[in-house]
Structure prediction request, 172 residues.
Amino acid sequence: AIVVFLVKPFEMGNYTELRDAGTDVTRVKGMITGLYIYRKSARGPEELRDGSTAKANDLLQLAYVSTDNLFGAILSIDGRGVVTVHHPPQGKLAARLELNKKVLLSSAYQLDDAPGFERFFYLSSKHPIYMNEIVEAAERLAKDPDRSRTAPLELDDGIQQLSIVIKKSNEQ
Prediction:
């Protein structure tokens, strides 16, 4: 089976954002829970994987796939120790996730000039998760630069964690 994934650029505020071109649900046998990061480039969306390099001002689109967990959040820690919540955009609880499809977040993320890295976390659970617990765990980890690139967040065992580290280059 061949699956075609389309993203369409469009203007939103001061930057171009990539967004899902359709609203149909595509279910693919054997989908795997995951976090996906796409960089906008002149050639179109480019997928960034763990260990990829990016630079300040790169525009990133985040996406997730959940195959069984109903609640989740996406956040990042940068080389300055700053925690950014990407999904949900607000609220006390983690977002209700769509199952068995790749879901692009509604807004893109522009990298700043924080040095070293940007580590993105995708957290999911079968049960509701309080965002303050997630953010506090990320802030604790962000205070330790040696561990913040590789250590997991200190959260309940029922919360699945995936992360992708993007290395930051000094180029602008």
About this structure: The chain has one helix and 13 strands. The longest helix spans residues 131-142. The two ends are 40 Å apart (CA to CA). The longest strand covers residues 117-125.
